[in-house]
Write a structure and sequence with these properties.
Length: about 325
């Protein structure tokens, strides 16, 4: 019987070494554990970076409140810490209000005549075309931004809201009745407030704008309080009856209290109205499809209607 040396036989396959197999499995295990650990470290670092950015942004917002109202507050101990929570609540509330606004409305002719909201706000397609052609905000955006950011432009339309009582004719049952007291609603002073390349950018710009308007309102409110131009009822609702705000410490306490009531500072209220073609408010159901109007109110200032617009490049007149 011929003996074959297994070490030199080319057809021979050595049995796997158990230690090599275990070592290979351990290496694979260590590599997988290291991959998972590295992923967790990266996620943690990203989270910490995001938290730092949010903290810095909040500090900047607090400083914006201080600079916009009374710089003496920086001399009060821990002023930034005391204003952080109320400022955060205000920013979060503003963000929620803006996100609840409907999607941007198209401004082409076909879309306009299907859009009851735009028809109610503008009263015709020609006023919309003139607004897009003449408004300085859109012209400034076009002059500033490159062509690729002008293919579609998003803009914020704002207009004043007027309601007044008039005497007119109305159908009651089967009869036409004269001298009926009715509520008439109209919108004027149409303007574009800001423009952006995306709807997300436009909403972020609106958030910044609302925060700036609230800070300006707070400055005016505190000035009215300081000079005795608030009603007795308004003063009674404030901490310490609004007394002693000449002191930065007391001023800070009142300001902190005001910031903690975001609903009193800014509101975007959606209202569904039954309006006929003449702008007469009808009782529900009214025979007309309700129109949604989103109205912005800052403090006790007059409301204004808001609407997000989507403007295709072909609709923007060349300058």
């Amino acid at each position: 019987m011929k003996h074959t040396d297994q070490r030199t036989d080319p057809g021979h396959r050595p049995l796997p070494n158990r230690r090599d197999t275990e070592a290979s499995a351990l290496r694979d295990l260590f590599r997988e554990q290291w991959r998972q650990l590295r992923g967790r470290i990266q996620r943690y670092e990203a989270f910490r970076s995001l938290e730092r950015q949010r903290s810095e942004a909040l500090d900047q917002a607090v400083e914006q409140v201080v600079s916009g109202t009374d710089r003496r507050l920086r001399g009060v101990s821990r002023y930034r810490k005391r204003l952080r929570q109320s400022t955060r609540c205000l920013l979060n509330y503003i963000g929620e209000c803006v996100q609840q606004l409907p999607a941007a409305h198209g401004t082409d002719r076909a879309t306009y005549y299907r859009d009851e909201t735009l028809q109610t706000l503008l009263g015709g397609y020609d006023p919309l075309r003139r607004l897009l052609a003449d408004d300085p905000v859109l012209a400034e955006y076009r002059a500033r931004e490159p062509a690729e950011r002008q293919r579609t432009v998003y803009a914020l339309l704002a207009c004043s809201e007027h309601r007044h009582r008039i005497s007119g004719c109305a159908i009651q049952g089967d009869m036409l009745v004269r001298d009926v007291l009715q509520e008439h609603m109209e919108f004027g002073n149409h303007r574009l407030v800001t423009a952006a390349a995306t709807e997300s950018d436009l909403r972020n710009a609106l958030k910044r704008m609302l925060f700036e308007q609230v800070v300006a309102y707070l400055k005016d409110y505190m000035a009215r309080l300081r000079h005795g131009r608030l009603s007795e009822r308004e003063r009674r609702e404030l901490p310490y009856g609004g007394e002693g705000i000449e002191s930065p410490q007391r001023y800070l306490e009142v300001l902190e209290w005001l910031l903690s009531l975001p609903l009193e500072l800014v509101r975007i209220q959606s209202e569904r109205l039954n309006l006929d073609r003449m702008g007469i408010l009808q009782p529900p159901p009214g025979g007309h499809e309700p129109v949604q109007i989103d109205a912005l109110t800052i403090g006790d200032r007059p409301s204004q209607a808001l609407c997000l617009l989507r403007i295709d490049g072909s609709e923007t007149p060349a300058g």
